[in-house]
Specification:
Layout lengths: L13 E8 L7 E7 L7 E9 L2 H8 L9 E2 L3 E9 L2 H12 L1
Antiparallel strand pairs: 1-2, 1-4, 3-5
Length: 99
């Protein structure tokens, strides 16, 4: 079940584990990373699992844009909503999912 943020205390930054790519084709390194609190119209999701797809691998191996590193791959994820910044956002998300 989603946990709503308290209106009296804003969400804080959190520390998570992530596989970080520091350069094209370099080995992924498990590191602690700080994740900023969600802003307006954003949500925080507790990721349970993720995968690296072919487009991730292509970008990871590409030397065309080295300024995009370091980066964290794995945009195909599953998890649960942890913080909703506003009730309006919840309404928009439910509307999108039920459309």
């Amino acid at each position: 079940m989603a946990a709503a943020a308290s209106s009296s205390s804003p969400p804080a930054a959190i520390t998570c584990r992530a596989a970080v790519a520091w350069g094209p084709g370099q080995a992924l390194v498990m590191e602690d990373v700080e994740v900023a609190p969600p802003g307006p119209l954003e949500i925080r999701v507790k990721v349970v699992s993720t995968s690296i797809c072919r487009s991730d691998v292509t970008q990871w191996q590409s030397t065309a844009q080295p300024d995009l590193f370091p980066r964290i791959f794995g945009h195909e994820a599953s998890g649960s909503v942890r913080i909703l910044v506003s009730l309006l956002l919840l309404t928009q998300v439910v509307t999108m999912l039920t459309a």
